[in-house]
Amino acid sequence: MKRRHALLFVLTLIGFQICQAQQIDSSLGLKDYFKNRFLIGASVTPNSLKGQSGALIIREFNTITAENAMKPSLIHPEKDRYFWTDTDTIVGFAKRNNMKMRGHTLCWHRQTADWFFKDDEGKQVGKEELLMRLKDHTTNVVGRYKGSIYAWDVVNEAIDDDEKKEFRSSLWYEICGDEYIAKAFQYAHEADPEAKLFYNDYNTENPVKREKIFLMIKKLKEQGVPIHGVGLQGHWSNKWPSSDELKRSIEKFSSLGLEIQITEMDISVYGSKENMDENPGVFTAEREKDQAEKYKSFFEVFFKSNKISSVTFWNVSDRHSWLDNFPVKNRKNFPLLFDATFSRKKAYWEVTKLVN
Ligand code: GLA
Predict the structure, then answer these.
(1) Which residue's CA lies nearest to atom 12 of ligand 1?
(2) Ligand 1 pocket check: which of 199, 314, 320, 333 to mutate, most ligand atoms within 8 Å of Cβ?
(3) Which atom of ligand 1 is nearest to the CA of 108?
(4) pTM for the whole thing?
(5) C-alpha–C-alpha distance, residues 172 and 179, integer Å
(6) Which residue of 76, 77, 261, 333 could cross-link 310, Cys pair, CB 3.0 to 4.6 Å?
(7) Can you list the domains of the chain with their CATH numbers?
(8) In whole angstroms, what is the distance from residue 60 CA to residue 71 CA?
(9) How far apart are CA 325 and CA 270, in angstroms?
């Protein structure tokens, strides 16, 4: 009897060690852990595809998004000039490494060059001209990457954060009214009928903004506009949102028959946007713990919902992220699953443990 117990103990120990070994098998990446659930990726630049960062991207991810290269002001800086080089580099990388690629973004109120909205004399263009420019831009950009880019953020951030306003008062809206939104989807669909077309926005877990986005998309669908999904950007923090609000957004948007993707995920370790937190720039043990829990709770929601087809992080590692400068200039943040030395963080193990 004693011998049987000893044998059982040894077998359990071996089993435990195999599991541990699996967990820290450094050749496994997020894409392996989540392979039966959803695509997993990061936003990249031609530079982040090189060296250690590039190796990490290949090991961990199976989808990428250009962080900046495809934004209108970068890819189409002047009326008759496109700048393809950076996007071509990123698309080439995705192809060589069998990765999917999302296109970001065709129509946005920011990072769109002034020429878009002005005629040769510097006067604001009218609706017809602006829509024609949007159509040309979309046809050329989507057309060039047809077959290489499977999903597009067609319209980015068209809804206002102000609870009393519906649409953001951008130049797009001022000149065209909300019609530009339906047109943007129509042009993208004509340029690549196979591509999945997304509306993309942040603060989608705010109940008021969620409702406004829901109503806008519902109307678009009723009008027969080709829209296939909604991108929850996922710029979250240790304090916000709650998993319940996230769950509600996923349920609400998918009730419209839409595909849901998390398109720009990061979890800021700060609670305040005004640098009011103690120890700015320090990744304290408490922040590390809170962030790991937050990541875990969000991934639990993704898994349970069964509605998420892709999760993309905004940037690769804490070495560099846009949150190092936003909303507080020069306040170092630590929002991702890899630290500044490209090592996996506590949050990484929390989310991968969920599928072990
Ligand atoms: C928004 C945009 C992104 C990016 C981030 C900040 O979420 O959609 O393209 O600019 O802001 O980097």
Answers:
(1) 322
(2) 314
(3) 8
(4) 0.92
(5) 9
(6) 261
(7) 32-355 (3.20.20.80)
(8) 25
(9) 13
